[in-house]
Protein backbone atom coordinates (compact mmCIF):
# COMPACT_ATOMS: atom_id res chain seq x y z
CA UNK A 1 0.00 0.00 0.00
CA UNK A 2 1.50 3.33 -1.00
CA UNK A 3 2.20 5.99 1.64
CA UNK A 4 -0.30 8.49 0.25
CA UNK A 5 -3.13 6.02 0.65
CA UNK A 6 -2.01 5.06 4.14
CA UNK A 7 -2.18 8.71 5.17
CA UNK A 8 -5.55 9.14 3.48
CA UNK A 9 -6.98 6.14 5.30
CA UNK A 10 -5.87 7.50 8.69
CA UNK A 11 -7.88 10.71 8.43
CA UNK A 12 -10.74 9.88 6.06
CA UNK A 13 -13.45 10.80 8.57
CA UNK A 14 -11.97 14.22 9.31
CA UNK A 15 -11.54 15.04 5.65
CA UNK A 16 -14.79 13.77 4.14
CA UNK A 17 -17.55 13.72 6.73
CA UNK A 18 -18.30 17.42 6.78
CA UNK A 19 -18.86 20.30 4.45
CA UNK A 20 -19.33 19.22 0.81
CA UNK A 21 -18.28 15.64 1.56
CA UNK A 22 -20.13 12.37 0.95
CA UNK A 23 -22.89 11.85 3.51
CA UNK A 24 -24.61 8.54 4.20
CA UNK A 25 -26.47 6.98 7.10
CA UNK A 26 -24.21 3.94 6.83
CA UNK A 27 -20.67 5.22 7.42
CA UNK A 28 -19.20 1.86 6.37
CA UNK A 29 -19.95 2.78 2.74
CA UNK A 30 -17.23 5.40 2.83
CA UNK A 31 -14.94 3.30 5.00
CA UNK A 32 -15.21 0.27 2.72
CA UNK A 33 -14.57 2.38 -0.38
CA UNK A 34 -11.45 3.83 1.23
CA UNK A 35 -10.17 0.39 2.24
CA UNK A 36 -10.80 -1.11 -1.20
CA UNK A 37 -9.15 1.76 -3.05
CA UNK A 38 -6.23 1.75 -0.61
CA UNK A 39 -5.64 -1.91 -1.43
CA UNK A 40 -5.60 -1.17 -5.15
CA UNK A 41 -9.04 -2.69 -5.78
CA UNK A 42 -11.50 -1.43 -8.39
CA UNK A 43 -14.79 -0.14 -6.97
CA UNK A 44 -18.22 -0.49 -8.58
CA UNK A 45 -20.86 1.82 -7.08
CA UNK A 46 -24.41 0.55 -7.56
CA UNK A 47 -27.47 2.62 -6.81
CA UNK A 48 -30.38 4.67 -8.19
CA UNK A 49 -29.84 7.96 -9.95
CA UNK A 50 -29.14 10.84 -7.61
CA UNK A 51 -28.14 8.63 -4.68
CA UNK A 52 -24.64 10.13 -4.37
CA UNK A 53 -22.40 7.80 -6.39
CA UNK A 54 -20.59 10.64 -8.14
CA UNK A 55 -20.30 12.57 -4.87
CA UNK A 56 -18.60 9.55 -3.29
CA UNK A 57 -16.17 9.29 -6.21
CA UNK A 58 -15.35 13.00 -5.97
CA UNK A 59 -14.83 12.70 -2.22
CA UNK A 60 -12.41 9.81 -2.71
CA UNK A 61 -10.50 11.85 -5.28
CA UNK A 62 -10.18 14.69 -2.78
CA UNK A 63 -9.25 12.36 0.04
CA UNK A 64 -6.44 10.62 -1.82
CA UNK A 65 -5.23 13.87 -3.34
CA UNK A 66 -5.55 12.41 -6.86
CA UNK A 67 -7.23 14.16 -9.80
CA UNK A 68 -10.04 12.18 -11.41
CA UNK A 69 -10.40 11.48 -15.13
CA UNK A 70 -14.07 10.87 -16.00
CA UNK A 71 -15.90 8.92 -18.68
CA UNK A 72 -19.67 9.34 -19.04
CA UNK A 73 -20.78 6.23 -20.91
CA UNK A 74 -23.63 6.08 -23.39
CA UNK A 75 -24.76 3.78 -26.18
CA UNK A 76 -22.31 5.65 -28.42
CA UNK A 77 -19.27 5.06 -26.19
CA UNK A 78 -16.58 3.35 -28.23
CA UNK A 79 -12.87 2.58 -27.97
CA UNK A 80 -11.86 6.09 -29.00
CA UNK A 81 -14.06 7.64 -26.28
CA UNK A 82 -12.14 5.58 -23.71
CA UNK A 83 -8.60 5.50 -25.06
CA UNK A 84 -8.28 8.55 -27.33
CA UNK A 85 -8.12 9.26 -31.04
CA UNK A 86 -5.78 10.11 -33.90
CA UNK A 87 -5.82 13.50 -35.58
CA UNK A 88 -3.80 15.33 -38.21
CA UNK A 89 -1.72 18.25 -36.94
CA UNK A 90 0.46 20.82 -38.67
CA UNK A 91 4.07 21.47 -37.64
CA UNK A 92 6.17 23.94 -39.66
CA UNK A 93 4.08 23.31 -42.72
CA UNK A 94 4.29 19.53 -42.44
CA UNK A 95 1.33 17.32 -41.59
CA UNK A 96 1.60 14.50 -39.14
CA UNK A 97 -0.70 12.09 -37.39
CA UNK A 98 -0.86 12.65 -33.64
CA UNK A 99 -2.55 10.52 -30.99
CA UNK A 100 -4.63 12.45 -28.44
CA UNK A 101 -4.96 10.31 -25.28
CA UNK A 102 -8.39 9.82 -23.75
CA UNK A 103 -9.39 9.56 -20.07
CA UNK A 104 -8.31 5.94 -19.58
CA UNK A 105 -4.77 6.47 -20.86
CA UNK A 106 -4.45 9.86 -19.16
CA UNK A 107 -5.39 8.31 -15.82
CA UNK A 108 -2.97 5.39 -16.29
CA UNK A 109 0.00 7.52 -17.34
CA UNK A 110 -0.54 10.22 -14.70
CA UNK A 111 -1.53 7.92 -11.83
CA UNK A 112 -4.95 9.54 -11.51
CA UNK A 113 -8.27 7.98 -10.54
CA UNK A 114 -10.49 6.89 -13.43
CA UNK A 115 -14.25 7.33 -12.92
CA UNK A 116 -16.47 5.45 -15.40
CA UNK A 117 -20.03 6.66 -14.93
CA UNK A 118 -22.94 4.47 -16.09
CA UNK A 119 -20.53 1.83 -17.30
CA UNK A 120 -23.45 -0.49 -18.16
CA UNK A 121 -24.64 2.01 -20.80
CA UNK A 122 -21.59 1.32 -22.99
CA UNK A 123 -21.72 -1.25 -25.77
CA UNK A 124 -20.76 -4.71 -24.44
CA UNK A 125 -18.24 -5.12 -27.25
CA UNK A 126 -16.41 -1.95 -26.11
CA UNK A 127 -15.84 -2.87 -22.46
CA UNK A 128 -13.46 -5.88 -22.84
CA UNK A 129 -10.70 -3.40 -23.73
CA UNK A 130 -10.72 -2.52 -20.02
CA UNK A 131 -10.10 -6.06 -18.72
CA UNK A 132 -6.32 -5.83 -18.61
CA UNK A 133 -6.31 -2.52 -16.73
CA UNK A 134 -8.76 -3.86 -14.15
CA UNK A 135 -6.76 -6.93 -13.09
CA UNK A 136 -3.31 -7.47 -11.64
CA UNK A 137 -1.61 -6.51 -14.91
CA UNK A 138 -2.69 -2.85 -14.78
CA UNK A 139 -1.60 -2.49 -18.40
CA UNK A 140 -3.09 -1.79 -21.80
CA UNK A 141 -2.06 -2.71 -25.32
CA UNK A 142 -3.40 0.34 -27.13
CA UNK A 143 -4.95 -0.94 -30.40
CA UNK A 144 -4.78 2.57 -31.87
CA UNK A 145 -1.00 2.98 -31.51
CA UNK A 146 0.32 -0.56 -30.75
CA UNK A 147 1.90 0.95 -27.61
CA UNK A 148 1.88 -0.98 -24.32
CA UNK A 149 1.00 1.27 -21.38
CA UNK A 150 1.64 0.36 -17.75
CA UNK A 151 -0.35 2.29 -15.14
CA UNK A 152 1.42 4.23 -12.41
CA UNK A 153 1.09 2.86 -8.89
CA UNK A 154 -1.44 5.49 -7.80
CA UNK A 155 -3.84 4.65 -10.63
CA UNK A 156 -7.28 3.49 -9.45
CA UNK A 157 -10.68 2.78 -11.00
CA UNK A 158 -14.15 3.68 -9.76
CA UNK A 159 -17.21 2.81 -11.86
CA UNK A 160 -20.92 3.44 -11.32
CA UNK A 161 -24.09 1.74 -12.56
CA UNK A 162 -27.82 2.43 -12.49
CA UNK A 163 -29.39 -0.98 -12.90
CA UNK A 164 -32.64 -1.53 -14.75
CA UNK A 165 -32.68 1.77 -16.66
CA UNK A 166 -33.51 2.05 -20.36
CA UNK A 167 -30.40 1.54 -22.46
CA UNK A 168 -28.43 -0.35 -19.82
CA UNK A 169 -27.18 -3.90 -20.20
CA UNK A 170 -26.01 -6.32 -17.48
CA UNK A 171 -22.25 -6.36 -16.99
CA UNK A 172 -20.71 -9.67 -17.98
CA UNK A 173 -19.29 -11.75 -15.16
CA UNK A 174 -15.67 -11.38 -16.31
CA UNK A 175 -15.94 -7.61 -15.96
CA UNK A 176 -18.04 -7.54 -12.78
CA UNK A 177 -15.65 -9.98 -11.09
CA UNK A 178 -12.88 -7.37 -11.34
CA UNK A 179 -14.71 -4.98 -8.97
CA UNK A 180 -15.50 -4.65 -5.28
CA UNK A 181 -19.19 -3.74 -5.27
CA UNK A 182 -20.64 -1.08 -2.96
CA UNK A 183 -24.40 -0.52 -2.95
CA UNK A 184 -25.37 3.16 -2.46
CA UNK A 185 -28.98 3.61 -1.26
CA UNK A 186 -30.94 6.85 -1.12
CA UNK A 187 -30.20 8.92 1.98
CA UNK A 188 -33.10 9.68 4.31
CA UNK A 189 -33.94 11.27 7.64
CA UNK A 190 -31.32 13.32 9.46
CA UNK A 191 -28.65 12.56 6.87
CA UNK A 192 -30.86 13.90 4.08
CA UNK A 193 -31.58 16.99 6.16
CA UNK A 194 -27.84 17.61 6.40
CA UNK A 195 -27.42 17.05 2.68
CA UNK A 196 -30.09 19.65 1.91
CA UNK A 197 -28.43 22.15 4.24
CA UNK A 198 -25.05 21.43 2.72
CA UNK A 199 -25.92 21.28 -0.96
CA UNK A 200 -28.92 23.61 -1.45
CA UNK A 201 -29.66 27.31 -0.94
CA UNK A 202 -32.66 26.57 1.28
CA UNK A 203 -32.24 27.55 4.94
CA UNK A 204 -35.88 27.54 6.13
CA UNK A 205 -35.84 24.79 8.78
CA UNK A 206 -39.57 24.07 8.56
CA UNK A 207 -39.46 23.77 4.79
CA UNK A 208 -36.36 21.56 4.94
CA UNK A 209 -38.28 19.19 7.25
CA UNK A 210 -41.16 19.17 4.76
CA UNK A 211 -38.85 18.24 1.90
CA UNK A 212 -37.32 15.44 3.99
CA UNK A 213 -40.84 14.09 4.55
CA UNK A 214 -41.62 14.50 0.85
CA UNK A 215 -38.55 12.42 -0.02
CA UNK A 216 -39.60 9.65 2.38
CA UNK A 217 -43.13 9.58 0.96
CA UNK A 218 -41.87 9.50 -2.62
CA UNK A 219 -39.56 6.61 -1.79
CA UNK A 220 -42.53 4.62 -0.45
CA UNK A 221 -44.27 5.18 -3.79
CA UNK A 222 -41.13 4.12 -5.66
CA UNK A 223 -40.94 0.87 -3.70
CA UNK A 224 -44.62 0.25 -4.47
CA UNK A 225 -43.99 0.69 -8.19
CA UNK A 226 -46.29 3.71 -8.48
CA UNK A 227 -43.62 6.20 -9.55
CA UNK A 228 -40.14 5.63 -11.08
CA UNK A 229 -36.89 5.86 -9.14
CA UNK A 230 -35.90 9.20 -10.65
CA UNK A 231 -38.82 10.83 -8.82
CA UNK A 232 -36.98 10.16 -5.53
CA UNK A 233 -33.61 11.37 -6.80
CA UNK A 234 -31.71 13.37 -4.20
CA UNK A 235 -30.25 15.44 -7.04
CA UNK A 236 -33.77 16.43 -8.16
CA UNK A 237 -34.72 17.17 -4.56
CA UNK A 238 -31.76 19.56 -4.17
CA UNK A 239 -32.80 21.37 -7.36
CA UNK A 240 -36.33 21.64 -6.00
CA UNK A 241 -35.11 23.04 -2.68
CA UNK A 242 -33.15 25.70 -4.56
CA UNK A 243 -36.26 26.66 -6.53
CA UNK A 244 -38.32 26.80 -3.33
CA UNK A 245 -36.20 29.71 -2.12
CA UNK A 246 -37.69 31.82 -4.92
CA UNK A 247 -41.13 30.29 -5.64
CA UNK A 248 -43.92 28.45 -3.90
CA UNK A 249 -42.72 24.98 -2.84
CA UNK A 250 -45.52 23.15 -4.66
CA UNK A 251 -44.57 24.91 -7.90
CA UNK A 252 -40.93 24.06 -7.21
CA UNK A 253 -41.88 20.37 -6.88
CA UNK A 254 -43.66 20.55 -10.22
CA UNK A 255 -40.66 22.10 -11.98
CA UNK A 256 -37.97 20.08 -10.21
CA UNK A 257 -39.57 16.64 -9.93
CA UNK A 258 -43.00 15.91 -11.41
CA UNK A 259 -42.55 17.53 -14.83
CA UNK A 260 -39.51 15.32 -15.44
CA UNK A 261 -41.74 12.23 -15.43
CA UNK A 262 -43.31 10.80 -18.57
CA UNK A 263 -46.75 9.61 -17.49
CA UNK A 264 -49.52 11.87 -16.26
CA UNK A 265 -50.47 9.47 -13.47
CA UNK A 266 -46.91 9.60 -12.16
CA UNK A 267 -46.89 13.39 -12.23
CA UNK A 268 -50.24 13.47 -10.43
CA UNK A 269 -49.03 11.04 -7.76
CA UNK A 270 -46.02 13.25 -6.96
CA UNK A 271 -48.11 16.43 -6.82
CA UNK A 272 -50.76 14.76 -4.65
CA UNK A 273 -48.11 13.83 -2.09
CA UNK A 274 -46.53 17.30 -2.23
CA UNK A 275 -49.89 19.05 -1.86
CA UNK A 276 -50.46 17.37 1.51
CA UNK A 277 -47.19 18.86 2.78
CA UNK A 278 -47.18 22.27 1.10
CA UNK A 279 -50.67 23.71 1.45
Automatic annotation (TrEMBL):
A UniProt-annotated Pfam family: AAA_5
One Gene Ontology MF term: ATP binding
InterPro entries: AAA+_ATPase (IPR003593), ATPase_dyneun-rel_AAA (IPR011704), CbbQ/NirQ/NorQ/GpvN (IPR050764), ClpA/B (IPR001270), P-loop_NTPase (IPR027417)
Domain AAA+ ATPase: 39-185
Domain of life: Bacteria
Alphabetized SMART domains for the sequence: AAA
Database matches in SUPFAM superfamilies: P-loop containing nucleoside triphosphate hydrolases
PANTHER family found in the cross-reference section: MAGNESIUM-CHELATASE SUBUNIT CHLD (PTHR42759:SF1), MOXR FAMILY PROTEIN (PTHR42759)
Family note: Belongs to the CbbQ/NirQ/NorQ/GpvN family.
Protein name as catalogued: MoxR family ATPase
Lineage: Bacteria, Bacillati, Bacillota, Bacilli, Bacillales
Amino acid sequence: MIDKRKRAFSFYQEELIGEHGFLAEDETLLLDAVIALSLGKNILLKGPTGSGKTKLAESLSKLFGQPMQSVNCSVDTDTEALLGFKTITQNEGASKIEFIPGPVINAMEKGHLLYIDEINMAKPETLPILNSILDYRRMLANPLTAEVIHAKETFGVIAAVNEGYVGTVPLNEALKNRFIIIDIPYVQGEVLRNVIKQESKLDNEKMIDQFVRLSADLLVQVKSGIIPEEAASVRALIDTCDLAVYMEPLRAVRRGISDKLEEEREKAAVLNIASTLFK
